[in-house]
Amino acid sequence: MGIVAGLDSSPEFTRIVVCDADTGAVLRQGYAPHPLEAPEGGGRPSDVDPQAWLLSLGEAAGGGLLEGVQAIGVSAQQNTVVPLDAQGNTVRPAMVGGDKRAQVAAADLVDRLGSREAWAEAVGSVPQAALPVTKLRWLARSEPENAEQVAALMQAHDWLVWQLLGRPARRTTDRGGASSTGYWSAASAAWRPDLVELALGHQVALPEVIGPGEAAGRTPEGLVISAGTGETMAAAFGLGVQSGDAVVSLGASGSVMAVHHEALVDSSGSITALADATGMHLPVVHTSNAVRALRGTVEMLGLDGGLEELSELAMKSTPGAHGLVLLPYLEGEKTPNLPHTAGTLSGLRRESMKPEHLARAAFEGMLCGLTDAMDVLRGRGVEIRRVFLLGAAAELQAVQSAAPALFEAQVVVPQPADYAAIGAARQAAWALNGQLPQWQGAAAQVFEAGDELPVGRAVRQQYRAVRDQIHPGAFS
């Protein structure tokens, strides 16, 4: 029984949902942008004063939104570093997002530990510019005076939970957020302070990792505050994904994230071993190219109607696109590991050289590339029976018609909702009532492969044949 709230502090705004703790029904909602100044040249800032998150939170919660709420859960952007001094004050602004400044630091960390494989074995991920451990190395190299003052580290959701609790002596985090730092191992469920020292140059205090259903504490007013987690983990929890499910994100790049019962140690670094917000694991495989392949095809064909027109055009073709195959490696590729390659258009014949066949090949190439990522997980014993398809491109008919047969799974396209905030609210209900709340899953369209499964396999085989001919051994 009761009312709970979930707040999601994303890079640009705060959303709050107030839910019935038993059913998950959304009772009311709040929203406020973050008062952030854009950097010169546009884009998102790399440094942010965390107070901006609190100001946005206060504005989103205005008008009595939290009246009657008994527990609050916090979701926030991942890949953040909030460096604190010995008194708990920020040493410098928080470092957020995909910080390109840290690219050299990532390579330095790989060299210092010995190899990509050594990092994958240690923490289930390889340093990249966005990872907190890489940001720490950049800080040590570029701002040594600030680095020396750092006495404790937090992430965005940790810091917000700590502020809501009145900045107690105890600082906490959850296993989901910890697993995205680059200095916590999902396999051993333990911090790696030696890797923090390797990056920053000295030891610091790290938050206590508490269980997914535990409370971080109570506010001075008596509200329960749950453990909190990263946006990815909160969104998965809000969607209601479970064992046998995968989440495929269709952005410019792509990712396949599945629910699994154990952490997958992958010495090649293809799989990033994240933990979820329930005690399970979320192994993730990334691709460098997804919707960017579609947008490139739109430009190549000169379509004024964008992705929607491309989808309509693709539906005038047939599965297999008359033998036309697009390997969508336009920005190199992570899966397979071909960072310096380019895309390939194969199967050009007089009868296949039509706009509708190129449009179809673009959709099939994108989806087959994501299926390659899915096969990396399936090859490690991850069961995938149902796929949640996220992103604006998931609404396109050409995606919905082809994906079930190519993925060989039921495809679910959820209705738009604040799933990260809903997941945070669900975690709050767990901390409040002491048991995992069985909320109804996301409202969605559901698509089945049906009789098209053999057709999908034939399209996949056509794609694989071209991939293996152009890039032999890429998946060896």
What features would you describe in this structure?
The chain has 476 residues and is α/β, with parallel strands linked by helices. It has a domain at 3-232: Nucleotidyltransferase, domain 5 (2-Layer Sandwich). The protein is 34% helix and 21% strand. The protein has 15 helices and 24 strands. The protein has helices at residues 51-60, 103-113, 116-123, 132-142, 144-149, 156-164, 175-178, 193-200, 231-239, 291-301, 306-314, 355-378, 397-407, 419-433, 453-470; strands spanning 3-9, 13-20, 26-33, 47-48, 71-76, 82-84, 94-95, 152-154, 172-174, 184-185, 190-191, 208-210, 215-218, 224-226, 229-230, 245-250, 254-258, 271-275, 281-287, 325-327, 344-346, 386-390, 410-414, 444-447. Strands 1, 2, 3, 5, 13, 14 and 15 form a 7-stranded mixed β-sheet that branches. A 7-stranded mixed β-sheet has the order 18-19-17-16-22-23-24, sandwiched between helices. The chain has a two-stranded antiparallel ribbon with strand order 4-7. Helix 10 (291-301) packs antiparallel against helix 12 (355-378). The longest helix has 24 residues, at 355-378. The chain is globular. The model has no long low-confidence stretch (mean pLDDT 95). InterPro entries: ATPase_NBD (IPR043129), Carb_kinase_FGGY (IPR000577), Carb_kinase_FGGY_CS (IPR018483), FGGY_C (IPR018485), FGGY_Carb_Kinase (IPR050406), FGGY_N (IPR018484). Residues 4-231 form the Carbohydrate kinase FGGY N-terminal domain. It comes from Streptomyces endophyticus. Pfam families: FGGY_C, FGGY_N. GO terms for molecular function: kinase activity.
